[in-house]
Write a structure and sequence with these properties.
With 99 residues, the protein is mostly helical. It has five helices and no strands. It has one domain (2-87). It is globular. Keywords: Membrane, Transmembrane, Transmembrane helix.
Length: 99
């Protein structure tokens, strides 16, 4: 319980710092945001669908996550696999609403 809370808090701090660093000339902010979100998703399985949706929507974000996956500790590999858009196809759209 304490480890999960610490991981979530660390991930949130990385995301906040990444947003602040994103306006700097160095592109470090995006990397920090990706790492923070992955840490949050690793600690809270309920956040994984959000990360999956973000990876489907933004190809640059998916590319950054894939780069981080190669350099991450084995603990986070399950999170990367659970949020991989290639392994989880999009659900079919509901066409009944249009009619």
């Amino acid at each position: 319980m304490l480890a999960r809370a610490a991981t979530t808090l660390t991930g949130a701090i990385l995301v906040i710092y990444g947003v602040i660093a994103a306006i700097s000339p160095l592109p470090l902010g995006v990397v920090l945001i990706v790492l923070g979100l992955i840490m949050i998703a690793a600690a809270n399985p309920a956040a994984r669908p959000l990360i999956l949706a973000m990876r489907r929507r933004w190809r640059w974000f998916d590319k950054m996550v894939r780069l981080a996956a190669h350099r991450s500790p084995p603990r986070f590999h399950e999170t990367f696999e659970d949020t991989d858009p290639a392994k989880h196809p999009e659900p079919p759209e509901d066409n009944a609403r249009e009619g």
